[in-house]
Amino acid sequence: MNVQTKGVPALRRTSLHQELADKVRELIVSGELPQGTKVPERELCEMFGVSRTPLREALKVLALDRLVVLEPNRGAWVSRITVADLEEVFPVMGALEALSGELACAKITDAELAAIRVLHEEMVGHFEARRLAEYFDLNQRIHEAILAAARNETLTVQYRSLATQVRRARFVANMTDARWQQATDEHAEIMATLEARDGPGLAAILRRHLQNKLETVREWLIANGQAG
Q: InterPro entries given for it (predicted)?
């Protein structure tokens, strides 16, 4: 078959329902759509100026990500976070984080290191000013920058398939001052080990960092009767 491509417009990389899935995902991760509540489809349609059809397609995507549960004749519900689920996800994510660290140490450029250093210093500034939302944003960008420096598309796909659940768990649990200090100290270790290009050392720190995060969330869920 001889297909002529000259003059054919490029397809959009994302469809409407995928864009909607991204927007609703952020509402769930941030807690604006609380766990265990019914997804307000009518309100979301009005908010985003769309019909029910693309929204329901978006909800199917989020169901695959285990962020919503689709119930026949009852609509979509925001899934609950359980200790059992997190104990499955976090070890896998820890392994992916460790691998991204090892690969990044072998491949990262001086320019990339400098950029991550800037993000780290900004994040520390938010910690000192007790700006938690801004701190979380920089924290996520640092982990994503390390992942990007690993230069492994397969790893990136697997990592991002679980990252939403980890981010959501982080938003759910209240972080004590002691745990926040610990997390910031761990990021200082991450930064120093990355700059030293110590792959095994960075892998170990990243695993421990994820394990400590899991402990924080687990303790909060149990203390608040939400262990599942």
A: GntR_C, TF_FadR/GntR_C, Tscrpt_reg_HTH_GntR, WH-like_DNA-bd_sf, WH_DNA-bd_sf
Q: Residue 53: what residue type?
A: T
- Beta-carbon contacts of residue 129 (< 8 Å; ≥ 6 apart): none
The 10 Å Cβ neighbour count of residue 78 is 21
- CATH of range 83-223; options 1.10.357.20, 1.20.120.530, 3.30.1330.10, 3.30.200.20: 1.20.120.530
Q: Please give the Cα distance from 140 to 138 (Å, whole number).
A: 5
| E strand map for 32-134 | 68-71, 75-78
pLDDT in tens, 91-131: 999 999 999 999 999 999 999 999 999 999 999 999 999 99
Predicted local distance difference test score (pLDDT) of residue 225: 73
Q: For the chain, give every domain's residue range.
A: 16-78, 83-223
Structural element, H or E, at residue 22: helix 16-29
CATH code linked to domain 16-78: 1.10.10.10
* Residue count of the chain: 228
Evaluate whether 168 touches 67 at the Cβ level (below 8 Å): yes
Q: What is the pLDDT of residues 162-191, one digit of tens each?
A: 998 888 888 877 788 999 999 999 999 999
Over residues 24-55, the pLDDT tens digits come to 999 999 889 999 999 999 999 999 999 999 99
Instruction: Tokens for 65, please give them.
Output: 């990500």
